[in-house]
Every structure is written in C-alpha cells, then in structure tokens.
Design brief:
alpha/beta, Adenylosuccinate Synthetase, Chain A, domain 1, Adenylosuccinate Synthetase, Chain A, domain 3, 3 domains, three-stranded antiparallel sheet, 20% strand, binds inosinic acid
C-alpha cells in the first residue's frame, strides 16, 4: 500500500469525489491540499446526498481521518456549516477531522475584493473570495488558522485586513459596509468550535506515514485550473496539480507513490476562458442534460464539449500519471457519433500541445476524429466485458491517443456503478 494523489485532469468537476469515496476504504487518511469552498463534491450514498466543499469526502467512511492541509484557504463559517451537516448525519467529526493550523482564513471582505478582479477580467470565479485569499497569502499579510485561534491577536488582525480590503474596494468605486465586530464575533464562535480539530497536520501526516498508514491526497479543481499550468489567467489561484500536494500538505515528493488522473469521458468547464472542444450545439445541450452538468457550488450551467487529447496528455505529463479514471461514460449513451479532439489548428498550423497563452488557446480550432457511438445503455455496468463494443473502442482510442490507460471507468454516481480493470496500473496502485 502506498500514498496516492487523485486529481482532476481537465477543468475540474471530473468526478473525483466518487473515486475518493470509493477508494477511501483502502487508505487511513484522506487529505485536501489546496483550494477552498470553491470546490464541491457531491456524493450519493444510497438515498443520502452530501455536498462537501472543504472537508475531504473520505470522512464519510467510519474510522478514516480527513485532513484539511496547510495549502487551503478556509472560510470558517462555511467550514462550520459542513461540520454541522456531517454531525447531523451522525459522522464522528470530532475524531475524523483535522484542520491545519497553517491554512489561511477567508473573510467576507475577500469577496468584496474579488468583485474588483471580476469587474476587470470576468474570469467567472465562484465568488467565494478564493483568489483574494491567496493574494493575501502571497503578499504575506494573510491570517492563518493559528491566528484565528489566538484570541489576543485575531481581532486586530481582522480589523486591519478588512480595513485594507475596504480601502482597495473604495478605490474601485465599491463602497460596501462591513461590520467587523459582527464578523469578529461569528469568527470567534467558529474558532472555539473548530479549536479541538486544529493541529499541526504536517506532524500528524508524518507520524502517520512513520506508523505505516496510507495517505490519499485529494485534488480540488483540475489541472487546467492550476495557477501555474492551467489556462492562465482563467484559472483558480492555487496549485491544483500534483506538486500542490507536496506544498499544500507538507509531504515530500519522495513519499508519493503514485498519481491517478480523473477525466470525464467528455469535457466540461465552468466560468470564462477558452475551451477549444466546446460543443455549442444541441450535442452540448444533450451532454449537459444527461450529465446534469450544473455547478455544485454555484449552480451555473457547465460548458460541455468533447474529450480533448492534448489537455489530457498535458495533464498526464505535469502530474506524472499513467492511469486515469474515465467518468460519466453513460452520459454519452445516446450519441450516434462522438468527436474526439486529437489536436488543434492554430493560425493554420497543426499542433498536439496545449499552447501557453489564452489567446492562442482561444484561436485553436479543434481537429476531430469522429468515432461511432454505442446507442445503448452502459448505466451501472461494472464489468469491462459487458460494455458495448463501440464503447470499448472509444475507450481504447482515448488510451492510444493519450498514452494513458483507463484503469477504471465510472458508469453512474453510485459506488458500485464502476468498472475496475483487473491487471491495470490503477488496480496495482489501489490494491
Ligand atoms: P475561483 O476558484 O473561485 O477563483 O474561480 C476561478 C475559476 O475556477 C473559475 O473559472 C471557476 O469557475 C473555476 N472553478 C473553481 N472551482 C471549481 C471547481 O471545483 N470546479 C470547476 N471549476 C472551478
């Protein structure tokens, strides 16, 4: 057994939550390492639906420890809401959740600052204050969880940060009243509630590894939303790729045994920014309807399109995965033909790599190969041999084009609606 990173290979929403939940039994710790409550995992367990934004979904397995690492930005009130949701469902939060004392704190005024950026750039963020939270971290004026718990330090630090945010917002004509003492009070209450859960998670994880425990690192967003490697500036503000697991959890690369990429059998994206294989016709609508492609955080309709080979190859290179989980195959059941984007034509030149600027990506015309659909139900199939032959061919084509095996295929939201391929690298990594 080993320490594994699971992350999104596209623009997020690849279905990581189900996979992490499925594999959580084989790991002792499930660790989030970046982002905040801009993420949203929806997990169905029987009739029960859980939407987790900050807390790793592994918490739904009794006895597992869910860890919120130092790389996150945390809105204490959003965190508390999740804790209460889990408490109400009988989850043993007190024993199963640990929060890094080095993670950063989001305040309501981060959302005010975000309005400035959104006015200028229209990235289409989740408006949770995530970008401004990371800005403050990088500018070395952020407030961390350890500061939130410091009753003597926090009130002044909060007042100073909020005042700073308001000054900046006013310079852009945004004059919103923010009641610092009310926020201070609510945050102080939240601080007392989470105090027993806060610790040095770096020490916790290193002790766990020394004791032979297995760690599962759960990425949020996806590689194309990574601050360094994604479709900048239409990205999130954290390191959503594999490297982020090391900085965001304090675990060295030498302790990571493998990476698994998650990709939909097609592609979606929320918010602004270029998306070469976007299907702006009724096929896109069909995928959106069948795949229920609406943001779990904001409810926004997701933009839908075809599988993008250059994106997947790029994600495999950056993150170092050679096995992927292909999710939502059943969403494509009704399609007569399925285009796959195998490259781009940019200014008349065919390329196989993702270009560095959003302007080139916006000019990229997709080069498609069109495969036959299977027009029969794959919903709930859990054996490779039961897949229609056209679906097998589709998956094999993606494997050939990307050089990455599809070690696991998801055919529905439930845990058992999953094809695990015997003998695959995926099976070896998660055995
Ligand atoms: P932010 O993370 O709220 O700053 O948003 C930056 C970009 O990332 C926007 O395009 C969002 O739609 C996108 N984004 C953030 N979180 C997620 C996610 O969990 N899934 C998909 N897109 C996301």
């Amino acid at each position: 057994m080993s320490n594994i990173i699971i992350l999104g290979a596209q623009w997020g929403d690849e279905g990581k939550g189900k996979l992490v939940d499925l594999l959580a039994d084989r790991f002792d710790y499930v660790v989030r390492y970046q982002g905040g409550h801009n993420a949203g995992h929806t997990i169905l367990i029987g009739e029960r639906k859980f939407v987790l934004r900050l807390i790793p979904s592994g918490i739904l397995r009794p006895g597992k420890t869910a860890v919120i690492g130092n790389g996150l930005v945390i809105d204490p009130l959003a965190l508390l809401e999740e804790i209460e949701q889990l408490d109400a469902a009988g989850v043993d939060v007190a024993n199963q959740l640990r929060i890094s004392n080095r993670a950063h704190v989001l305040t309501p005024s981060h959302r005010l600052v975000e309005k400035i950026t959104e006015c200028k750039l229209a990235i289409g963020t989740t408006l949770r204050g995530i970008g401004p939270g990371y800005e403050d971290k990088a500018a070395r004026r952020g407030i961390r969880i350890a500061d939130l718990l410091d009753r003597a330090y926090f009130p002044d630090a909060l007042a100073q940060l909020v005042a700073d945010h308001r000054t900046r917002a006013r310079a852009f004509g945004l004059d919103e009243e923010i009641d610092v003492s009310e926020i201070g009070e609510r945050y102080a209450q939240a601080a007392e509630r989470i105090r027993p859960l806060v610790c040095d998670t770096v020490r916790l994880l290193h002790d766990a590894m020394a004791a032979g425990k297995n760690l599962l690192f759960e990425g949020a967003q996806g590689t194309m939303l990574d601050l360094d490697h994604g479709s900048y500036p239409f990205v999130t503000s954290s390191s959503a790729s594999a490297g982020g697991a090391c900085t965001g959890a304090g675990v060295p690369p030498t302790k990571i045994d493998g990476v698994i990429g998650i990709s939909k059998a097609y592609t979606t994206r929320v918010g602004g920014g270029p998306f070469p294989s976007e299907a702006l016709d009724e096929m896109g609508d069909l995928i959106r309807r069948r795949g229920n492609e609406f943001g779990s955080v904001t409810g926004r309709p997701r933009r839908c399109g075809w599988f993008d080979v250059p994106v997947l190859r790029y994600a495999a290179a950056i993150n170092g995965f050679d096995t992927m989980v292909l999710t939502k195959l059943d969403v494509m059941d009704e399609l007569a033909e399925i285009p796959v984007c195998v490259g781009y034509r940019i200014d008349g030149v065919e390329v196989r790599d993702v270009p560095p600027t959003w302007r080139e990506l916006a000019r990229a015309e997709p080069v498609y190969e069109v495969l036959p659909g299977w027009r029969s139900s794959t919903k709930g199939i859990s054996e490779w041999a039961e897949l229609p032959s056209a679906a097998e061919r589709y998956i094999s084509f993606l494997e050939e084009q990307t050089g990455v095996e599809a070690g696991c295929i998801s055919t529905g939201p439930e845990r058992n609606e999953t094809v695990l391929r015997a003998g695959s690298r995926f099976a070896a990594l998660t055995a």
